[in-house]
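Design job #97: recover the sequence.
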C-alpha cells in the first residue's frame, strides 16, 4: 500500500463536489466522503464519484451497539467503497461486528479502520472533559492495539502519533492521518496537527486533507503541494 493524499470533500451538495473534482481533469485523487455530503446526497453520491474513477474513503465513523453497526456495515458493503470506518471507542466487540457485517459472501471487503481520538481533541480536553485520565499518546496506542486485536486494518490518528502506532502495531497496520496543515496555514478546529512533509517523516500511510485544499484559491495546486511534500 503506497502513500497517498486523501482529499476530504466536505461539501453539502453533489453540484459542489462535482464542480470541485472536475478541476482535476485527468488526475483522480483519493476522495473522502464524510457525513455532510453523505447525509445531503445519500448513497448515490458514492456511486457517482466512484463512477468518475476516484477511490473512496467513506468516513461515517460508526459508533453504536454491535448489532446495529454490523447491519449498517452490511449495507455499506454494497457500496463499493475502498475504505470505511468506526470509532474504536465502540469497543472491540463492536469493531469485530463491523468487520463481520462488512465482509461480503465471497470474503472480499473494503479496508476497515477505527478512529482513536479525534485530531480536534487536545490532551487537556480528553482528560478534563472526557475523563480519560492518561496521556493522549498512550490512549491512542491503547485504542490502536484494541483495533488491531479486533482484526481491523488500521487507525485514524494524528500524524504525530503515526510512528508510535507502527512501532506498537507493525508497519503493515495502516495510519490514516487528518490534522494536516501547510506550515503557513490556518489550523482551524484541529489540535494535533503537522505538515504533509512532517507526516511523511513520521510514517503516516495516508494524509487526509480538507480545507487546506478545498478552500484554497487554487485547489489543484494545493493538492499537488500536498502530494509533493508527502509522496515526493
Ligand atoms: O480524527 C479525525 C477524524 C476525521 N477527521 C476528518 O478529516 C477531515 C479533515 O478536514 P480538514 O479540513 O483538513 O481539517 C474532516 O473531514 C474531518 O471530519 C478529522 O479531521 N479528524
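Job complete. Output follows.
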Amino acid at each position: 500500500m503506497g502513500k497517498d493524499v486523501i482529499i476530504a470533500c466536505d461539501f453539502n451538495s453533489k453540484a459542489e463536489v462535482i464542480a470541485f473534482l472536475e478541476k482535476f481533469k485527468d488526475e483522480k485523487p483519493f476522495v473522502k466522503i464524510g457525513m455532510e455530503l453523505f447525509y445531503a446526497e445519500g448513497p448515490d453520491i458514492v456511486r457517482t464519484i466512484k463512477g468518475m474513477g476516484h477511490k473512496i474513503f467513506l468516513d461515517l465513523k460508526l459508533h453504536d451497539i454491535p448489532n446495529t453497526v454490523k447491519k449498517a456495515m452490511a449495507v455499506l458493503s454494497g457500496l463499493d467503497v475502498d475504505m470505511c470506518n468506526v470509532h474504536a471507542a465502540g469497543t472491540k466487540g463492536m469493531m469485530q461486528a463491523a468487520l463481520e457485517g462488512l465482509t461480503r459472501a465471497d470474503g472480499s471487503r473494503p479496508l476497515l479502520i477505527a478512529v482513536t481520538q479525534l485530531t480536534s481533541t487536545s490532551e487537556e480536553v480528553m482528560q478534563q472533559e472526557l475523563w480519560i485520565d492518561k496521556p493522549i499518546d498512550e490512549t491512542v496506542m491503547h485504542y490502536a492495539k484494541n483495533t488491531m486485536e479486533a482484526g481491523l486494518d488500521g487507525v485514524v490518528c494524528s500524524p504525530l502519533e503515526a510512528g508510535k502506532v507502527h512501532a506498537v502495531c507493525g508497519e503493515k497496520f495502516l495510519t490514516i492521518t487528518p490534522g494536516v496543515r501547510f506550515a503557513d496555514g490556518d489550523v482551524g478546529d484541529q489540535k494535533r496537527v503537522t505538515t504533509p512533509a512532517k507526516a511523511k517523516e513520521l510514517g503516516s500511510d495516508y494524509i487526509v486533507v480538507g480545507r487546506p485544499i478545498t478552500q484554497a484559491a487554487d485547489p489543484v495546486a494545493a493538492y499537488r503541494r500536498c502530494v509533493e511534500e508527502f509522496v515526493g
